[in-house]
Automatic annotation (TrEMBL):
ATP binds at G12, S13, G14, K15, S16, A17. It comes from Sulfuritalea hydrogenivorans sk43H. Pathway: Cofactor biosynthesis; coenzyme A biosynthesis; CoA from (R)-pantothenate: step 5/5. Belongs to the CoaE family. One of its GO terms (biological process) is coenzyme A biosynthetic process. Catalyzes the phosphorylation of the 3'-hydroxyl group of dephosphocoenzyme A to form coenzyme A. It catalyses: 3'-dephospho-CoA + ATP = ADP + CoA + H(+). NCBIfam families: dephospho-CoA kinase. This is Dephospho-CoA kinase. One of its GO terms (molecular function) is dephospho-CoA kinase activity. One of its GO terms (cellular component) is cytoplasm. The lineage of its organism: Bacteria, Pseudomonadati, Pseudomonadota, Betaproteobacteria, Nitrosomonadales.
Length: 204
């Protein structure tokens, strides 16, 4: 079993920026957001079940999930979000497990990147350690507004569906501070990488 570090953080906190720095150090990154996107791409394995549950209008002409429409629906309606998650989460979990087990031997440990890790008992049990990318809520909102062009109110609804900053910090073994410049990340990741190499050495 590989040593697995769970990487989490709220929307726009900087998980992808942090994951890239681990990947540059030869570490396998299993990205559950990327898996969710693949499952809902044209011909994606989740699309038949999503059409059956929500109707054919959830798909675009090319067969991919209409992400903007689904986002508007599920972050306004917790029951719809549960129906979406009931279809996607088991598929995401199975695929992430498959990718973890397939990791190349050169990767001494693996990063499992899960936005909803703190919220999920299953993922918490699966990981050996939890690293949280942390920044102020307002920083998250500003970054997502400039990246996706989403309205502040829409981002606030997504934040409301996630654990709070305090809940995430309470679950963290390691905290990566991403309130500053991007240049502040590599020294933090270098230090954690050294620590994870040591820790994985003792369990493998
Ligand atoms: C609602 C969907 C279609 C919106 O798509 P969109 O392209 O706008 O966002 P994307 O998938 O890139 O996710 C961006 C971020 O939104 C947040 N988010 C996504 N799903 C959820 C959720 N169910 N609950 C809370 N926050 C969520 C996360 O911070 C994530 O990093 C999409 O997020 C989705 O299918 N969500 C359900 C699957 C899921 O829970 N994914 C989280 C990874 S396990
Ligand atoms: N320290 C930083 N300074 C400035 N911009 C940053 C910083 N960290 C991340 N960003 C930018 O903020 C946005 C969100 O970062 P990133 O995509 O890494 O977050 P994420 O946690 O993976 O987001 P999501 O949950 O939405 O997938 C990106 O456009 C990224 O380039």
């Amino acid at each position: 079993m590989p040593y697995v570090v769970g990487l989490t953080g709220g929307i726009g906190s900087g998980k992808s920026a942090v994951a890239d720095l681990f990947a540059q150090r030869g570490i396998t990154v299993v990205d559950t957001d990327a898996i969710a996107h693949a499952l809902t791409a044209p011909g994606g394995a989740a699309m038949p079940a999503l059409r059956a549950e929500f109707g054919d209008t959830v798909a675009n002409a090319d067969g991919a999930l209409d992400r903007a429409a689904m986002r508007a629906m599920v972050f306004a309606d917790p029951a719809a979000r549960k129906r979406l998650e009931a279809i996607l989460h088991p598929l995401i979990r199975a695929e992430s497990e498959r990718q973890l087990l397939q990791r190349p031997a050169e990767s001494a440990y693996a990063i499992l990147m899960v936005p909803l890790l703190v919220e999920s008992g299953d993922y918490r049990k699966r990981v050996n350690r939890i690293a949280v990318v942390d920044c102020a809520e307002n920083t998250q909102i500003e970054r997502v507004m400039s990246r996706n062009g989403l309205a502040r109110s829409e981002i606030e609804r997504i934040l409301a569906a996630q654990a709070t900053r305090a809940e995430r910090l309470a679950a963290a073994d390691d905290v990566i501070d991403n309130d500053g410049a991007l240049a502040a990340l590599p020294p933090q990741i270098e230090r954690l990488h050294g620590r994870y190499l040591e820790l994985s050495h003792y369990v493998s």
